[in-house]
Amino acid sequence: MTALVFNMRCLPRICHLLLCVATVLLICTTAAVSQHAIPWQDAANYYGQVKTVEGTIVETKNTGKVCFLNFSPNWRTDFTAVIFASDFGKFPPNPDNYYRGKKVRVTGSIQ
């Protein structure tokens, strides 16, 4: 289990799911978490609530200042987790490579 803290935000888009990014407390492999998880596709329905969101990281991008962990190729409208550079030390080296293709659970306040 890898502890993490990072911030996310929600940007509403007409006819699309919300891009939901939460203040995340924990990211880990599915087996390590016992809390009931919701699919990443449903995260927008829980805005303002603390939930565990589950899905596979399909794309990543590390700019050196922020690492984006995308649950869908459509990162503009779908759930994305964000790790800021100030928190990189709380994760394995190269989190973009480490988490790509892995099923994860992210717990936090969906904002």
Distance between the termini: 23 Å
- Helix share of residues? under 10%
Helix and strand element order: EEEEEEEHE
* CA gyration radius, whole angstroms: 13 Å
Shape descriptor reads globular
Total E-strand runs: 8
User: Helical segment tally?
Assistant: 1
Strand percent estimate: 35-45%
Task: Write the CATH fold name.
Answer: OB fold (Dihydrolipoamide Acetyltransferase, E2P)
Class by helix and strand content? mainly beta
Q: Please give the domain count.
A: 1
Class, according to the CATH hierarchy? Mainly Beta
| pLDDT averaged residue by residue | 75
- Second-tier CATH architecture: Beta Barrel
Strand sequence of the main sheet, in spatial order? 1-2-8-4-3
The biggest beta sheet is recorded as: 5 strands, mixed
Ranges where pLDDT stays below 50 over 5 or more residues in a row are 1-34
Question: How would the blueprint of this fold be written?
Answer:
Layout: E1 2-6, E2 22-29, E3 37-39, E4 50-56, E5 59-62, E6 66-70, E7 80-84, H1 95-99, E8 103-110
Parallel strand pairs: 3-4
Antiparallel strand pairs: 1-2, 2-8, 4-8, 5-6, 6-7
